[in-house]
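User: Please predict structures.

Assistant: First:
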Amino acid sequence: MKKLTLTFCAMFALFVVAPAIYADGPERVSSKEKEVMQPAPPVCDFYRAHEWDLGIWAAYAFAADTGQFDVDKIDPFSPDEDPFLFDYGTDFFGEPKSSNPNERVNIGQVSKNQLFGRDDTWGGGVDVKYFWSRYFGVGIEGLGLAAKTNFAGGGLVTLTGRFPFGRFAPYVTGGIGFIDGGSTLYEFFNEKHQYSLQGQPFDTGFYVSNEREFYTVDPVSNNHVRALGQIGVGLEFRVTCHIGLMADFTWNFVFGQEDHPDKFHLITEQGQNTFTFFGLPAGSSVVINQALELRPGHGSDHQDFGMARFGVTFSY
């Protein structure tokens, strides 16, 4: 009887303790799993205080003053004593610069813009900024633009305010600096003479001339430093914590250069026509020709431009 009682007690204890043992088992396994799993690393701060930014960008620039002036195509010399020949042979050395057959006179301004020499152009630049806080930074910027046959480049000190949220940061920027170079298009009157020795059975040694007059539109370089001001708005997108994409638009003011307008200058040339008869001097006459030549001035007018920029930024 005692053995039966002990057997029932042992079975009762087993049924009571077994569920508790089974319940404790999964908790220990879950506890071990929690110890093995590591928490996810925190997301980086895309825009930080005490941050250095390097930006490299391409730019499309367009002039504030677009279009061209109509320049009258005239022979600027008045009167124009052109070379001529007599039937019996005539040597001539009368027209101005006849010994130098290249005659070239600036007759007027063509491009209204006086920086690019055209309405728009391409360029690029680089800037370095330091943000002392998450929102404000100072920097330096260098830019270059492909003016007509002449490089236009400059530099600025800039101040930038940005307003980051997530990966995006709209910003406003402004700066002051300088720009140099560029060009303006002018129209030129050109006259060229070609001389050749021609011989005949009874007369040798006189010249025959082939005269050609034509017009060209050529740039005149502007090699004067001018002040440059800049304001703009843009947007930056951070692809990673340290690499971003940027796009902005800036308006650029060129000012500060003393204004020297274009002026017309009177050219007076004197030569001599010498006539020969069968190779012998027969007479001569003095020839005086005059022309008005435009001499380009320089200043800072008609050089403002807009600029759209697209590039990549590196932050550290």
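Second:
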Amino acid sequence: MRSIASRISVMSGEGALSVFARAKQLEAQGRSIIHLELGEPDFHPGQSVIDAAAKALAEGKDRYCAVNGLPALKEEIASYLGRTRNIEVSPENVVVAPGCKLSLFQSMMALLEPGDEVLYPDPGFPGYASISLGLGAVPVPFTLSLKNRLQPDPDELAAMITPRTRMLLTNSPGNPTGTVYTDVVQRAMAELAVKHDLWVLSDEIYARIIYGGEYLSMLRYPGMHERTLIIDGFSKSFAMTGWRLGYTVAPPEVVPALNMMVVNTYTCVAEFAQYAAIEALRDREGNTPRMVAEFTRRREQFSNRLNQVSGFRCLPPEGAFYAWVEITGTGMSAENLCQILLEDAGVACIPGAAFGPEGRDFIRFSFASSMETLNEAVDRIQNVSAAWQGTAAAR
């Protein structure tokens, strides 16, 4: 009998999308649902970005184009990374893709062999482990714990490295925790990568969304240029989730392999969307700083209010737009709590185990919604909190 390839059975979905599907079912039944499960800014691209896409379409820029990205876009990406991250990147090292997930997938496919070990953060983006398994590699989680303020522990990492370790995955600011890795931690990770000759995949999709200080890319550390691939895109920093635009910055010897992935998958990214991306990077209207300023305001208010909910403990995130809430004080499992919040309060959020075993005592809220919506969400949570206050008191 014909069967599905075994690699599919070891891969996993995303908890956010599962919760979203159930929330949409409830909405179809007439329920009012506040969506705090998806990492999607409630902003839209500036008018200049829309106009650039419309102009490109009007000029017939809807054809096949350069395989790894328009030269003009790659030049703009290199300039943008120099301005915003103080790193020097050659346009020739940029490969444009239809979304960051595909950038991540093709980078891992180009570099990993079956049996290779991949160090990745737990809790972390579910795709890290899922893609590794699908490629026959072995995902090895390193812990982000509250006792270490959700920072990676370089000593733990060092102890995990074996002769089979091939890749170190970093994500700062991180999903779901909002952690921005410190200079000390990143420098130690870079030294380990050099010492053990590891590839480094630096997922920097939230790099522009930080709440203080200068962002430090992994590419800024000694020995990183020849081994680091940056994964970034337009969904978060430019509120362009549905445009499906991402890119990889790779060492020169990796670029041909990535180009081979492109030729055998998506051929090229939509030409008119790339012209819009150029305008987004230039950001003449200051859309990204304005959006981050609003996220800063929401971060303070939302985390403060969540800490007033019985049994909740929330450290204000250092980056991204997620509230990572410890819920052991409720006496309930994260799964049961999220079910109550969705079914009874109409607030959609995600149990932390969806991001790895270390997230089992947490839930994640996205605060990429209006302040009015966030305040209503907390009001609804407070209204159903009696369901766990008695449970916690009985412990």
